[in-house]
Amino acid sequence: MAPITDIQVERVRALVASIPAGFVATYGDIAAAAELSSPRIVGWIMRTDSADLPWHRVLGASGKPAPHLAARQLETLRSEGVAVHDGRVPLKSIRFDFGALPPLPPTDH
DNA sequence: GACGTGACGCTAC
DNA sequence: AGTAGCGCCACGT
């Protein structure tokens, strides 16, 4: 399989960093925006290298964060003004649109 | 190199 | 609407 390059990691990091406070994004959206082959890769990257990133703004497709992080993450989101309803976030209204971002740096793929 | 693992996602009950 | 099952891809052992 195609191993993850540093460039891929940097793109994901840049995308996550570009999510404004008060908005969230899903792993799938980030994977698509970064042109990754699978959303799982985003999860792996976050687990591996999430330091100094607003990782709390990344949720699953169902609007719920990973179980072990849910408590902290939802609390942080709420402090940013994100509406949290019953441990869940209304993606429909605050999902960040990566399509509105400037084009990603060119890749050699 | 096979086997298990996981910050995921979609479809089917 | 909630749960379960399977596919997915890269990584560590």
Model description:
The chain has 109 residues and is mainly α. The protein contains five helices and two strands; from the N terminus they run H-E-H-H-E-H-H. The protein has helices at residues 6-17, 27-33, 39-48, 70-79, 91-94; strands spanning 25-26, 58-59. A two-stranded parallel sheet has the order 1-2. The two termini are 14 Å apart. The mean pLDDT is 92. The structure holds a DNA duplex (13 and 13 nucleotides).
| Largest sheet properties | 2 strands, parallel
Name the overall outline. globular
Q: Report the mean per-residue pLDDT as an integer.
A: 92
Unreliable segments of 5+ consecutive residues: none
Identify the quaternary structure here: single chain
Number of helices: 5
Would you spell out the secondary-structure blueprint of this structure?
Elements: H1 6-17, E1 25-26, H2 27-33, H3 39-48, E2 58-59, H4 70-79, H5 91-94
Parallel strand pairs: 1-2
The chain binds a DNA duplex (13 and 13 nucleotides) through residues 1-4, 26-28, 31, 36-48, 50, 55, 58-62, 65-69, 73.
